[in-house]
Amino acid sequence: MTTWITICDTCKREGWDQGDMTQTDGEKLAILIESAANGLPDVKTRRVSCLMGCKSGCNVAIQGKAKLNYTLGDFMPDADAASGIVAYANAHAQSATGQVPYRDWPQEVKGHFVTRHPPLPDSE
To answer: Which terminal residue of the chain, N or C, has fewer Cβ atoms less than 10 Å from its own Cβ?
Structure first.
């Protein structure tokens, strides 16, 4: 089943305004995640403007229908973070519940979990 990586493309880390400001940190991370996820059949990406986690940017959500969903944040916009996020999303896609055993978490995502959301109910 498909897992979506929702990437906040408006995230700016502290000190962002000291650089060239041509791209937000979120845009930089989005490009890297999209590249790392390219070709994975069970992982899709999308960008949104603001996940409302500004104090811990860069933020992403890992989501799948009828699965546990997660928000992760405080990433550097670099290739290591992107590859860890994509590896975790791929493991999430392979899990029936969305729960990935801690021993299988990529090192790059450890310490970056912000929230866990249970799946929405199928009926009222």
So the answer is: C
- Domain chopping of the chain, boundaries: 3-117
Residues of the chain with pLDDT > 90: what percent? 77
pLDDT at residue 1, as a whole number: 85
Per-residue pLDDT of 25-46, as tens digits, reads: 899 999 999 999 999 999 999 9
- Angle between helix axes 25-37 and 79-94 (nearest 10 degrees) is 50
Contact 109, 92 (CB under 8 A): no
Backbone angles phi, psi at 61, to 5 degrees: -120, 140
Per CATH, domain 3-117 is 3.40.30: yes
Residue 46: CB partners within 8 Å, gap ≥ 6? Answer: 4, 5, 6, 7
Structure tokens given for 33: 């995640």
* Whether the predicted model's global pTM rises above the 0.85 cut: yes
Looking at every residue in the chain, the average pLDDT score rounds to 93
* CA–CA gap between residue 108 and residue 82 (Å, rounded): 9
> Beta-carbon neighbour count of residue 76 at 10 Å?
14
